[in-house]
């Protein structure tokens, strides 16, 4: 008997990905294209339909399509609410548009929550009842599993952890506020701090192991900012583990000592032994998590 299969779609401001996933979380087929981010919602819906036609020309046994989208989106009503990276995605019934185009049941999810579901079901959080997934790239996003359930909150918008204020009247954030965690600990903030010395985070991570003092200092500072936010998350959600994903997670082994140092200083003793681990599914977490939602 063949296993259930579902389609996962990951809409990014840069890349659009689609995958056919089986009930064990294995990717059976995968396609990717550059998102027509400035062309409006209908053009992106057509791109999704084209990708799905490639990965699943035969729809037999496919249970539905899960959509991972950047926010803010109202996942209860299937609405895009003004996604900054996608032109025209404002008060658009994106879930029903995709459902019509694919002729399949569709579920819409905030991208970081979809990735958290992927890591929970098939990655670094398998078997756990409580976890926090943190994605650190251009911004910082999050997804929380609590008491064995996905924490969605009002309109499915829970877990916007990058916008917790950690500094009064601090650095400006893309959201319009000041002092957000994202303004200090995102990949963008890290790239800005290292820019006088290194062209990109990758080169700073490459220079640190050989003992380059500037690289070590910048990586330690980045780890410290991450640790401040992670200690807050431990107190808020009491997870069994914290999973770090996104581009900055490529430097995980170098960042972990500094993160741990700050967490040991800031977290109350009962919270200090929670493991902090790298994501296991990489850039496929959102695709696999989205598919898992409709399996
Ligand atoms: Zn913010």
From TrEMBL:
Pfam families: ROK. PROSITE patterns: ROK (PS01125). Belongs to the ROK (NagC/XylR) family. This is Glucokinase. It comes from Devosia yakushimensis.
């Amino acid at each position: 008997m063949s296993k259930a299969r579902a389609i996962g779609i990951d809409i990014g401001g840069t890349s659009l990905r689609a995958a056919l996933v089986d009930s064990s979380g294995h990717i059976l087929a995968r396609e990717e294209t550059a998102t027509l981010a400035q062309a409006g919602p209908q053009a992106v819906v057509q791109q999704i339909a084209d990708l799905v036609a490639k990965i699943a020309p035969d729809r037999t046994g496919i249970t539905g399509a899960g959509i991972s989208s950047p926010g803010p989106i109202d996942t209860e009503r299937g609405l895009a609410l003004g996604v900054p990276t996608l032109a025209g995605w404002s008060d658009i019934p994106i879930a029903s548009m995709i459902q019509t185009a694919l002729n399949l049941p569709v579920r819409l999810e905030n991208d970081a929550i979809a990735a958290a579901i992927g890591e929970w079901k098939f990655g670094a959080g398998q078997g756990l009842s409580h976890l926090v997934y943190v994605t650190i790239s251009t911004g910082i996003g999050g997804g929380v599993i609590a008491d064995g359930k996905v924490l969605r909150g009002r309109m499915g918008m829970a877990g916007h952890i990058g916008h917790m204020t950690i500094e009064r009247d601090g650095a400006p954030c893309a959201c319009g506020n000041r002092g957000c965690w994202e303004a200090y600990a995102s990949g963008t903030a890290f790239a800005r701090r290292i820019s006088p010395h290194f062209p990109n985070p990758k080169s700073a991570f490459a220079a640190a192991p050989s003992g380059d003092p500037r690289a070590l200092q910048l990586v330690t500072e980045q780890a410290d900012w991450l640790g401040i936010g992670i200690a807050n998350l431990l107190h808020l959600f009491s997870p069994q583990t914290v999973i770090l994903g996104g581009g900055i997670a490529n430097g995980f082994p170098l960042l972990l000592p500094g993160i741990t140092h700050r967490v040991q200083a800031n977290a109350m003793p009962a919270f200090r032994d929670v493991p902090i681990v790298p994501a296991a599914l990489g850039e496929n977490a959102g695709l696999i998590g989205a598919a898992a939602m409709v399996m």
